[in-house]
Amino acid sequence: MTIQTRTKLLTIGSFILGFGFLGALDGIIFHQILQWHSVIMETDRTSQIVSDGIFHLATTLTLVLGGILLWLAGKPTDLSNGVRKLVGYFMIGGGTFNLIEGIINHHILAIHRVRPAADNPLAYDLAFLASGIVLIVIGLLLKPNKWKKEA
Questions:
Q1: Would you say 45 and 122 are in contact if contact means Cβ atoms under 8 Å apart?
Q2: Going by fewer Cβ within 10 Å, which terminus of the chain is more open, N or C?
Q3: How many CB atoms lie within 10 A of CB 40?
Q4: What distance in Å separates the CA atoms of residue 14 and residue 93, rounded to the nearest whole number?
Q5: Rounded-to-integer distance, Cα 131 and Cα 95, Å
Q6: How far apart are CA 17 and CA 30, in angstroms?
């Protein structure tokens, strides 16, 4: 396998793993531990649990796919700036999850809020989006800049 192919697998796998990881954290923390919301709130409890189960299945499949791609890429230390690519694109993937999930589910579809029972649910929704932006910025700072000569 060529270095270019391994680098693409590392980049895509890291992004997908980060996307799935933040999705899993969202499900574990907000859906299960804190029980602030379910994927679909305006339904009975059984349907909320089913919607969360489908969400958990999707995040699990995403984690598996990211893991397979990283396994195929091989050791990140064997690639130029491999660890920086792994961590940077992982963070970008996680931040992208927060932005996509926050914009689509919280604002466009309005199927749930981060913490709908809060005095100011919009503040929680905006903090969720801000966390996505922060993760993306951290990832962009960590990943190698393709315009600079790589060491």
A1: no
A2: C
A3: 17
A4: 7
A5: 7
A6: 19
The type of residue at 85 is K
Q: Is-contact 87 142, C-beta < 8 A?
A: yes
Delimit the domains of the chain by residue range: 3-142
pLDDT digit string, tens, across residues 3-18: 999 999 999 999 999 9
Number of other residues whose CB lies within 10 A of the CB of residue 109: 10
Beta-carbon neighbour count of residue 85 at 10 Å? 23
Distance (Å) of CA 13 to CA 68, 90, 138: 8, 8, 18
Phi, psi (rounded to 5 degrees) for 48: -60, -45
Q: List, for residues 85-121, the tens digit of each pLDDT value.
A: 999 999 999 999 999 999 999 999 989 999 999 999 9
pTM above 0.70, yes or no: yes
| CA atoms in the 13 A half-sphere facing the CB of 146 | 5
The CB density around residue 149, as the number of other CB atoms within 10 Å, is: 7
Structure tokens at 61: 């499949």
Amino acid at 57: L
